[in-house]
Amino acid sequence: MSVTRTGEATPPVDADPRRWWGLVIIALAQLMVVLDATIVNIALPSAQRDLGMSDGNRQWVITAYTLAFGGLLLLGGRIADLVGRKRTFVFGLIGFAAASALGGAATGSGMLFGARALQGAFAALLAPSALSLLTTTFTDPKERGKAFGIYGALAGSGSAIGFIVGGLLTEYLNWRWCLYVNVPIAIIAVFGAFALLHDRPGYKGGRLDVPGAVLGCGGLVAIVYGFSEAESRGWTDPVVLALFAGGVVLLVAFVWWQNRAPVPLLPLHIVRDRNRAGCFLTMMLAVIGMFGLFLFMTYYLQVVLDYSPVKTGLAYLPLTAAIITGSTQISARLLQHVAPRMLMVPGMVLASGGMMLLTRMTTHSSYATEVMPGLILMGLGMGLTFMPVFATATAGVAAHDSGVTSATVNTSQQVGGSIGTALLNTIATTSSAAYIAAHLHNPAQKALIAKEGVVHGYTVAIWWAAGIMLLAGLVAGLMVTAKAPKHGATAETPVPEPVV
User: Iron: is it a keyword of this entry (predicted)?
Assistant: First the structure.
């Protein structure tokens, strides 16, 4: 970095002259990953009808993606370090596009679930390599800050883009185009990566913690599958109990192995820190509630209130705007002056309050007066929480641990989304079935009772989500004891993978 006679900073002489075009390619790939977390939500009712999915199994369209993404994210970051970020980035793009094409051509629910899991696996390669390439492309601190700002803004707005694009594609083309759309984006990004991105060679002599990845991901899959099977089998069924027990055993074995692995997937000293552990747990609990809500609200708006896919996508905009406002305009301004938990605890209480407002939904609720206020309150609360969670979890981390720490927070997001979608979907469907069985006395009222039963199931699950968010606030209040940052202190915080 040099300074001109007028006092203006100029980039380093060895800076890549095409680095800003490189940012466009990295951001394009990131947008594709973000879109897939929300675009499929809008398409799900149409896909369920087309492929004949049951209410109990439909959540796997979302869960298969988030579970593979979260379970393999740490391994994906390690592969990028060893193989090379650009090579991993390109491989992730090609694989993501192929998996998207497979999902778009799905002829049955199992094929779609498998394609979504493949998408998640390749996203686990793509996301950390994209973030690493951004860091290595922009070496000047001032330029890097600007690049991260652009990247973060795109990540934050990607959810809104996903909801709207998903609605447009589903309504005017077909739900399959919500997956096919990734193919041209990936092709452009691959050619752009070869032409514009540069990378240092991967580290030699390293190794991958494959046993750790198998144990960790296997344990999470078993637990989430147990939640899913509880809908049809019941919570006390031997298969369900065996899945839960097996998942716990695998996760315990994962922790045991991480203490002994030559190069552990997750160095345990990262989660032994009280503040970081509190942030990881707060994030996971918060996202459990939020992802479940996405599933219910999409069906409520399209199936119960008879909204079109486009109108459904637009209905989510207040939620997204509230999250961005709470994060960038409130938390970002207050975090330098108050302790992190002074934002996280009120944030979770506010989000829980928004959830409680949504429990008043009926088969004929008004969006403006009964739905939107709850979404806005929840969005503000989540925005208040996200910013201090990431800032606190990554503060004071050694340089060689910064990547794995950021990946661990992102993993807690994806794992929370997987558990929340499976658990709350099971609660909703079982509650709906019980309501319909108890109230269906006159066959002539079957359609009305069925619709009321569906809404009843949603509200029961949302009550659970509200309770889980209050638990997240309690965890933050008890575990996150960090003080407000000193004035003038700066820290380079990794950009989070967005959850909306």
Answer: no
| 117 shares its domain with 183 | yes
On whether the CB atoms of residues 368 and 341 are closer than 8 A, the answer is no
Could you give the count of Cα atoms lying within 13 Å of 469 in the half-sphere of its Cβ?
31
Q: Bigger pLDDT: 178 or 156?
A: 178
**Angle ∠(37,38,43) on CA atoms, nearest 5:** 120
Beta strand pairing status for 2-3 and 9-10? antiparallel
pLDDT in tens, 311-350: 988 898 898 888 888 877 888 788 778 888 898 999 999 9
Same-domain check for residues 459 and 312: yes
Q: Does residue 2 lie in a domain region? A: no
Amino acid at 122: F
CA torsion through residues 232, 463, 388, 133, sign: positive
Residue 465: which of 295, 232, 324 has the closest Cα? 295
Q: What percent of the chain has pLDDT over 70?
A: 84
CB-CB contact of 116 with 178 (8 Å): no
Enumerate the H helices of 326-371 as residue ranges: 332-334, 341-358
Cα separation, 208 vs 400, in Å, equals 16
Residue 181 lies inside a defined structural domain of this protein: yes
Residue 358 resides in a domain: yes
